[in-house]
Amino acid sequence: MGWKTIDDMDLSGKRVLLRVDINVPVEKGRVTDATRIERIVPTVEDILAKGGTPILVAHFGRPKGKVVLDMSLRQVLPVLREKLGHPVAFIETLEAAERHTEEQDTAEVMLLENIRFHPGEEKNDPEFARRLAGLADVYCNDAFSAAHRAHASTEGVAHHLPSCAGRLMQAELEALEAALGQPQRPVVAVVGGAKVSTKLDLLGNLVAKVDHLVIGGGMANTFLAAQGIDVGKSLCEHDLADTARAILDKAQAAGCEIVLPEDVVVAREFKAGAENEVVAADACPEDAMILDAGPRAVAKIDAVLSGAKTLIWNGPLGAFEIPPFDTATNAAAARAAALTQAGQLISVAGGGDTVAALNGAGAAETFTYISTAGGAFLEWMEGKDLPGVAALAQSAAA
Ligand code: ADP
Ligand code: MG
């Protein structure tokens, strides 16, 4: 796929600048969720096993190029040491890092202080990137979630060192490639969520690549309204009617079937357990709002999923935070999980609320791959080149 992995690199006796995402939630100086730290462990272990010395580089919060003590990576150090089961030296400044790398013991792990304390990081300043690169012999990027940003530690350094993807980055790219790059067809995309406006590029890219596009959630209302249907008090972007129609036209030209809900669940209040009813998609009462897809819509999604080989999913099908408006999302998630378990479907999903919804449905563990990368996942699905990935490929080609 154009970039190298740890397997392709000779790391014996080499210092490896390892970009990771350990931007974990912290309350009162204590890490409250260590998932991101746990996920980098295999990469660090593999580098050590190949005789390399990892120098971890990461950001933490948004200090905007200044030293902000609240945003010191020192706070994650105890948990990092515990999860790695390995000593970690904390290095506060670049000068200290430069001195330290000269006298460094092998098999030591270093963690540099929050790289965003340096103004050159987010500016991708070439001098700063060169200086960072000077700390190591090899660059390994394991921060897929930061790959949509062209910063010195995510992009700039790759131009100065032999570079490779870490295990997490590799898993993420392989999963995305299997879903949208060279997928087994038919491919179905499920796109839901609140608004069309935040997912225009995504819809535009998907209709050109997938065989079926299921549109759900609040954004389906905009498509229904664009076809002249009255959606009452539903969340709806009426000003995007032309855009919605253009997406429908593009889909038709590309041979992509668009699946909009045939029936919907409507309620008059946006609260848990609100009185609700199922109506045809074109029969929303004027004082009600559409909060979920109905049973016929779910049956249609079932049928589309059953005939598919690959699923890519972003965005819940309804207002899943307030039961019972999680019903369609849960049903579709359960179906996708069952097909995945039966070996009939490759299922890839991502997005903050999507991951929460699939966890809530108890389906996340069974999916082929769940991306926690947020913005980078969406940009990849939108067909955009991610600078952090492109730089790895350029380095491999050089
Ligand atoms: P993600 O974070 O996975 O990319 P989004 O942020 O795009 O997903 O969408 C999730 C939000 O969409 C949820 O807060 C959900 O309540 C909302 N939503 C879904 N369907 C509806 C609907 N019919 N009306 C109002 N909000 C909806
Ligand atoms: Mg969201």
Q: Categorize the overall geometry.
A: elongated
Beta-strand level of the residues, as a percent range? 15-25%
Q: Which sequence of strands runs across the widest sheet?
A: 5-6-4-1-7-8
What helical percentage do the residues reach? 25-40%
Q: In the residues, how many domains can be counted?
A: 2
Instruction: Count up the helices.
Output: 14
**Level-2 CATH architecture of the largest domain:** 3-Layer(aba) Sandwich
Unreliable spans: none
The CATH topology of the largest domain corresponds to Rossmann fold
Rg, rounded, reads 23 Å
According to CATH, the homologous superfamily of the largest domain is Phosphoglycerate kinase, N-terminal domain
Q: Tell me the span between the first and last alpha carbons.
A: 15 Å
Kindly report the average pLDDT value. 95
Give the biggest sheet: 6 strands, parallel
| SS class | alpha/beta
- Give every kind of bound small molecule, once each: adenosine-5'-diphosphate, magnesium ion
CATH class of the largest domain: Alpha Beta
Strand tally is: 17
Describe this structure in words.
By secondary structure, the chain is α/β, with parallel strands linked by helices. The strands form four sheets. The protein has a six-stranded parallel sheet, with helices on both faces. Helix 1 (35-49) packs across helix 2 and helix 10 packs parallel to helix 11. The chain has helices at 35-49, 77-84, 94-103, 119-123, 126-133, 167-181, 200-209, 217-226, 241-254, 295-306, 327-341, 352-360, 375-381, 387-397; strands spanning 15-19, 26-27, 30-31, 53-57, 88-91, 109-112, 138-141, 163-165, 187-191, 212-215, 257-259, 263-267, 276-280, 289-293, 310-314, 346-350, 369-371. The chain is elongated and about 75 Å long. The mean pLDDT is 95. The chain is 37% helix and 17% strand. It is built from 14 helices and 17 strands. Helix 3 (94-103) links the parallel strand 5 (88-91) and strand 6. The structure holds adenosine-5'-diphosphate and magnesium ion. The site of magnesium ion has 2 residues, from helix 12.
